[in-house]
Amino acid sequence: MFSGVKAGLVSADVLRREQQELRRHERNNKHLEEESRYSETVFRDKSGRKRDLAQERLEQRQKAEAQSERDEQYAKWGKGLAQGRQQQQNVEDAIKEMQKPLARYIDDQDLDRMLREQEREGDPMAELIKKRKAKENKEKKEKPRYNGPAPPLNRFNIWPGHRWDGVDRSNGFEQQRFARLANKKAVQELAYKWSVEDM
């Protein structure tokens, strides 16, 4: 049988001997039972080395935190940094406006500044102000631009660099592309006119 005793009809001596054998076997294995009861499970990797689960959990948590931080940053970038700043500025302006009284008087500095910054059509001083602002902006370092004859068109509308000498060194692909597009548009227009001619 599974327990180690004989099956079927057995005498009392055989039964007593089997029980003593079982007790002795249990006593011999008692210390193994005690050791295994309070021992911790040892986890090993494929090569057979012991794994430090606490360290692995810590590393995994750090990776997850770094990943969530990166995802948060990409989400912020995806929404647009300039749009986020503009939205924050709008909220601050709205809070600032809510704190002001409802009635705005003639001596309100914010209202005065806002009205002065508005450009009105037919304002004789607007041109002078634009020139002053352009001069102030010109003082700031500006990237040089190409100042020659009009360059040939390209499909991305990219302006040539400021050092371009004006010589078209392309293989003619852009011109062929524009010619194909123009031809396709002309054929479509001609087909449309032909289809509605008898109406």
- Element-by-element helix/strand order: HHHHHH
Q: Strand percentage, roughly?
A: under 5%
Unreliable runs: none
Q: Work out the helicity level.
A: 55-70%
Q: Please summarize the sheet with the most strands.
A: none
Q: What's the total count of β strands?
A: 0
Pfam family, one: Bud13
GO biological process, one term: mRNA splicing, via spliceosome
Protein name: BUD13 homolog
Family: Belongs to the CWC26 family.
Question: Which keywords apply here?
Answer:
199 residues, mainly alpha, 6 helices, 0% strand, CWC26_splicing_factor
Could you give a quick summary of the protein structure above?
By secondary structure, the protein is mostly helical. The chain has helices at 12-38, 53-79, 81-99, 109-117, 126-139, 173-195. The radius of gyration is 44 Å and the shape is elongated.
Structure notes:
The protein contains six helices and no strands. It has 199 residues and is mostly helical. It is elongated, with a radius of gyration of 44 Å.
Strand and helix layout:
Elements: H1 12-38, H2 53-79, H3 81-99, H4 109-117, H5 126-139, H6 173-195
